[in-house]
Write a structure and sequence with these properties.
The protein is of the alpha+beta class and 114 residues long. The protein has 3 helices and 5 strands, in the order H-E-E-E-H-E-H-E.
């Protein structure tokens, strides 16, 4: 999608600090980190939100989770623990309309979320 910031990051039209990429997904550091480790993992394909996941594209979610596990190992937070978050829609706190998964760790995270 031409006006989507995360599509532009995937196309490298906007710079980002990439920690992992393959033919289907990209992972990069969040510009405003909420934890010592804060990575965003996105599909290259524009999917607006979790509400657009269906049989045709659901495989990308399992791939993203597998890569989150790998990144957690690379970042040294596999043993201490981490959180994978998807914010969906207004009340979920989604601010970018391209599905993304936050990988957060490096400190003890509180629960429940605000
Ligand atoms: P959400 O509120 O779940 O939609 O998360 C969007 C996230 O994208 C926020 O944590 C932002 O800090 C992050 N973000 C926005 N623009 C950029 C960017 N250009 N590079 C890296 N992270 C970004
Ligand atoms: Zn997009």
């Amino acid at each position: 999608m031409s006006d989507c910031i995360f599509c532009k990051i995937a196309a490298k039209e906007i710079p980002s600090s990439i920690v992992y990429e393959d033919d289907r997904i990209l992972a990069f550091k969040d510009i405003n980190p909420a934890a010592p480790v804060h990575i965003l993992v996105i599909p290259r394909q524009h999917i607006s939100s979790a509400m657009e996941i269906d049989e045709s594209n659901a495989d990308i979610v399992s791939h993203i989770f597998k890569i989150c596990k790998k990144i957690a190992g690379d970042m040294g937070i596999a043993e201490t623990g981490f959180r994978i978050v998807n914010n969906c829609g207004h009340d979920g706190g989604q601010t970018v309309g391209h599905i993304h998964f936050h990988l957060l760790g490096g400190r003890a995270l509180s629960w429940p979320p605000g």
